[in-house]
Amino acid sequence: MWELVNIDATIIAQVLNFIILLAILAKFCYKPLLKVMDDRRNRIINNLDSAEQTRLEAEELKKQYAQQLADARAEATAIVDKANKIGQKLHDDFMSQAQAEKEQLMATAREHIEQEKQQAMLDVRTEVISLATEIAGKVVSEKLTGAEDQALIAKTADKVLNK
């Protein structure tokens, strides 16, 4: 069995060369390569952590902006509602004031009409008395001037006017 494996000095030299090469590669290439890979892995992890932190901050800002927008909309709605209420109150005040002025004008006009009516009635009564006295005077051929005659004529004129 030993015959198949022929061990000579070149195989031993090759194995020693291979081991030395492995040691040199381990010291000068493998360890720096592992260090570079670890540094890169750490940098990637840091970048991912930083990206996650930035994403969380962006979400928080988005929530804040959404809340500010909702607050601004609520405030705008409140301002519009307040303006509508003020406008409605002003409208109601103007309408009630206009109604009061209308009623006052109507009352003044009624009083004026009533006064004019009373004055017209007095004027008509006076005219009727005067005409009745004149007519009676022509009929009787004398001018009536007595107080009783004037009272009788006034009573007759009142009856005529109240019909």
Could you describe the 3D structure shown?
It is a single chain. This protein is mainly alpha-helical and 163 residues long. It contains 2 helices and no strands. The protein has helices at 9-140, 147-162. Helix 1 (9-140) crosses helix 2 (147-162). The termini are far apart.
Relevant terms:
163 residues; mainly alpha
> Between the first and last Cα atoms, what is the distance in angstroms?
166 Å
What is the β-strand count? 0
What proportion of the residues is helical, as a percent range?
over 70%
Q: What can be said about the biggest beta sheet?
A: none
DSSP summary: helix tally = 2
Overall mean pLDDT score?
A: 86
Query: Low-confidence stretches at least 5 residues in length (pLDDT < 50)?
Result: none
How much β-strand is present in the residues?
Answer: under 5%
Which structural class should the secondary elements be placed in?
Answer: mainly alpha
Radius of gyration, Cα only, in angstroms? 62 Å
Order of helices and strands: HH
Gross geometry: rod-shaped
Quick overview:
With 163 residues, the chain is mainly α. The chain is 91% helix and 0% strand.
Topology at a glance:
Elements (H helix, E strand, L loop, with lengths): L8 H132 L6 H16 L1
Helix pairs in contact: 1-2
